[in-house]
Amino acid sequence: MSRFADHRSALRQPPIEYRPELRWWLAEGHHTDQTLRSEIETAHRFGFGGMEFLAMDEEMIDHGRYGWGAEEWVHDSAIVVEETTARGMSVSFTSGTNWSNANLPTIDPDHPSAAQELDVVTIDVRRGAPAAGALPRIDLDANRGDSLLPGHRVAPKTQRLEAVVAAVLTGDGVIDSSSVLDLSERVDGESLDWEPADDRDWRIFVFWAHGTGQTAAPSATVNYTVNYLERAGVDAVIDYWSEVVLTAELREQIARNPRAQMYMDSLELTIWGAGGMFWGQSIRDEFRRRRGYDIVPWLPFLIREIRMMAAATTYHYDAESAQQPEVEKVRHDYAQTLTDLYIENMLEPFAAFLHENGITLRAEISYGLPFELTRPGPAVDGIETESLEFGSQIDAYRLLAGPAHLFGKQYSSETGATTRNHMLDHRFFDQIIRTQLAAGVTRTVLHGWASTVGAEGATQWPGHEGMWPMFSERFDTRQPASEFYPLWNDAIGRYQYLLRQGRPRIDVGILRTDHFVDNLSGLVFVEGDGTRVPDEVAYGRWWMRNRENHWWQDLGMQDAGWSYEFFDASLLLHDDVSFGEGVVQPDGPGYQALIVYQEALDPDAAALLLDRARAGLRVLIVNGARELKLLLTGDYTTHERAASRTPGRDGRDAELAATLTALRALPSVREIDDPAQTIQALRDLGVIGRAEFTAENRAVLTYLREDGDLLHLFAYHFLYETGAETTVEVALPAGAVHRIDANTGEALPHQGTRQAGDRTIVTITLAPGESALFTLDRGSAGQDSVPARATTVADIAEWGIAVESWDAGEDITIVEDRGLGYVTREVKPTTAVTRIESAATALRPWKDLPDIGPEVSGVGEYRAVFTVDAADAADGRLLLDLGSTSGGLGSVRINDGAARGFDTSHPVVDITSDVRPGTNEVVVRVASSLNNRLRARGYYEQIADVALQFSGRAGTHETIVRDYGLLGPVTVKRMR
Hints:
The protein is an alpha/beta fold.
């Protein structure tokens, strides 16, 4: 049994493995040893727990000398591993240069290990106008546009004839599927003589396989993307890492680091040709073996166009309406086969190799390619999501929470990437982290970190960009807020520490299959009329914060305080998934019920549901549910009748129908025709939320962990832009409740509990954007208490105000000579800090203070005194309420006490231990972003707006002068 006292030490000082980590964009291998060591020491001093490092293209340098794979890159990699390991930090490699995919310098486009595609060229024929002679080949040198990814296309030299198929066109892009003929056997060499026997319009599809030619930069030579579907692809990666990367010295360092990892990002592989299909030598045979029929006659229906990610797939040919359901089954079978091969030929062997070398595998599984989103979960050690592509949406993070929780995987996120570089207040990023915590993401990898030091001629203040100036944010020394990162990391570390203890407890599992998940949904910032909506507006006011969840759109369970998440039904068949005590995976999430809502359901999973339902599993069948398909185009899918067909062309629809008939007849099963009836139907089945609200609340999300006798509860008011203060009552098992101050680690009995039979009702009041952390101890008796009431004991209106203004300083040159016959020169832009004393004493935004103005960014310092009489100092707890810090990170110091951090949405600090009767001095320091200074310097005028690019438009970044500083009103309150 766990006791709360066991956690107090870690809450005071969170261990390093629970602290946020960093994605570090290196300027290839160009950083000097001095720079590398300094950056890691600084990140460690700031309180970060690890570094995930990767090479990014740096201008003005010799890529052959410094690119990925060069001696300088190998040397720098060894230093990164050595320095992080020495400090107890985690270290993560990537599976090639940059982030986008596994790539190697040892292959070329025609290599068996290289990524392949199935391309197509067509011939239109009629009776009297036959096909005769040589089949048309692919023009491998044709220019079909550039990729948005770092790298270029190198044309392959060879192509392989895969199949020739003829079909009748009955309309524009419409094929009569019953007319399809496989003409491959009639081909002589590469020639075909064939004439239709009727007068219909026939089209011959000639399919050629060839390498995609996708490269990845930067590289000392040229890195090519490997094939994720053929075993040859991962074998080439394993060989390269075994023979080149993992030197004896590096293996020794890895052996000393228990948190060495390989990280695989979202799958950003591109296809060049007109066919749009990923391919390989064995695909046709594997498809036949797994699906039981030949894919060739169906290839015309798989021809597609992909706009960057698989979510934006458009098929070029459909069947006639009566035939289309069968085509959809074939398309599913193709994607299912690709998913199988991705798991078996990439993830599983790669993970096994890594484990042999003391490295674990963390991956953003599936999304980006047409792979089922959740099925690969068991094959990796850690499952990762991200904020850039999923836009701080709770439903998006629920997508991968299912496999993470079902199989006990660490759930993490690349967090902080936006299209608004240096613009946004710190509160924006805190809200993303809190949204993710509410879904069970308990490992934050900030996106990202870059040294300010870079190449001569390519580096200007505020510093080397790393991930390009049009993308992401930098949580490094260039930020005025970096002064407060140690306090911030302590706070996040406390959340992540407590929310990794024990096991997750999730009320409901929702069965959901998706091979084309919309991972572009977090990047849709352009309205139909072309208006660019700022990221911060969409995040704070749209989608989930406008009661529009993308996938499970009925909000009844969420409003009731119930937790739920998604996973593919076939995962229930996994040997590691059990049923007992009336729940799925009793030692894990413990789903009390499963929801079936999509039209297609795997027949083997359906049979298992029937078996489990006979043993008491509660199942709810929901008809008429609507879910997002692609936000960019406003496409949604409505599932009129759940489980009405199998997903694939397996001939088992009648079997599924019989299974569902038997399932519906069981007392533990309900069926509804309106998703709005979900919560009541589940209650009728006896489901009770483990942390349910006593009354509906539309502003609060929770996440629950069970840790022996302890329950750890995270609560979050997610309407940070549009909401008002809210009070919610949460019903938990009986026990004593403590509230943990995330900024100090102090845990005090929570005021606002009452016992109601075998439950404890916890009253929680939250400001918009505020989050709170509680622990309930079932081993201790709970005591009734009323919520604490606040009384103002001091208003602080007069302040001494100064701003430390940040601007460009002098450049410093760093020179390194490693005795290799050349020297490396770096430029380190410095920041000039000018202290401006303001004559003002009233709190206003910096832009409105005449002696500060709209061009200043930096850190504000505010000094004041307040008086507390002896009675107030001795009775209850004293809180300093800062009102507003404009979303800025900062600290509070009272008298000679320690600096304390605060919540950027609800900046209230417990100052009880530092206050003395009589006069007290308070110092508040608040950081800004760099937006106002960079705007004044013209920084944004030449930076392309990537959100416009995604929508097919062009333009540069636009930003406004932003409010900075302490705004108040500031009061001292007594709570009792």
